[in-house]
Amino acid sequence: MDRLFISDLHLSEETPKIEAALSQLLSGTSLPDQLVILGDFFEVWVGDDDDAPLANRVRDLLYATSSRGCEISIARGNRDFMLGQRFADDIGATLLPDETLLEIAGKPAVLLHGDTLCTDDTDYQRFRAMVHDPAWQGEMMAKGLEERRELARQLRALSIDAASNKPEDIMDVNPQAVDALMANSDVTLMVHGHTHRPGRHKLVCGERIVLGDWSEAHGCLLRERGASLTLEQFAISQ
Predict the structure, then answer these.
(1) Quick one: which of 236, 197, 196 has its CA closest to 217?
(2) Pick from 2, 72, 12: which is nearest to 45 by CA?
(3) pLDDT digits (tens, 9 = 90+) for 191-227
(4) Could you give all domains of the chain from N- to C-terminal order, each with its CATH number?
């Protein structure tokens, strides 16, 4: 099994270098058996009916990737929480739940975006509960695309402002939340993104691997090859 795990690309029209790096990763002669995307793939996602040029380009890229035999799985993040089954179908992918159990490199593991582990950020957790509510999402989808795009811009601005006033520690994962999820899931490995703090953390119960975000300078991925797991950072061409 040759499997890649990525998260936090935050694709937008303002990130052409990241989009190009993703295209380069997926357009080579040798594709992984599986690509797992753990949320915040897009900076904003206003619904699976989005017809913006970026949305269409990425749909085409991922559909071409899955058509070449690479199995794609994708999870929602805190930026693209409106991503749904229609998008997954469009690209030939599997839409993952908030938490996914599977075997990675021979170990029982749990995969997730990671925002649900930041339990000290109570304001964000209340916001998350609201925007994941089916009734709220139904009201959003009843609006036109342009109105949704404007609301998304407003929510993004509010989020940036709120984050600037929060202590750094409350926006990281809560250790007790990590321990509880791993114990309840009966796993020895956790893989997540969200925090933009890539690293491998040894725990009493096993290991927590944090995926890094992508920038104009570098990308980050976790590569599984047989029993080997490597967290890799690579340069993005300028």
Answers:
(1) 236
(2) 12
(3) 999 999 999 999 999 999 999 999 999 999 999 999 9
(4) 2-235 (3.60.21.10)
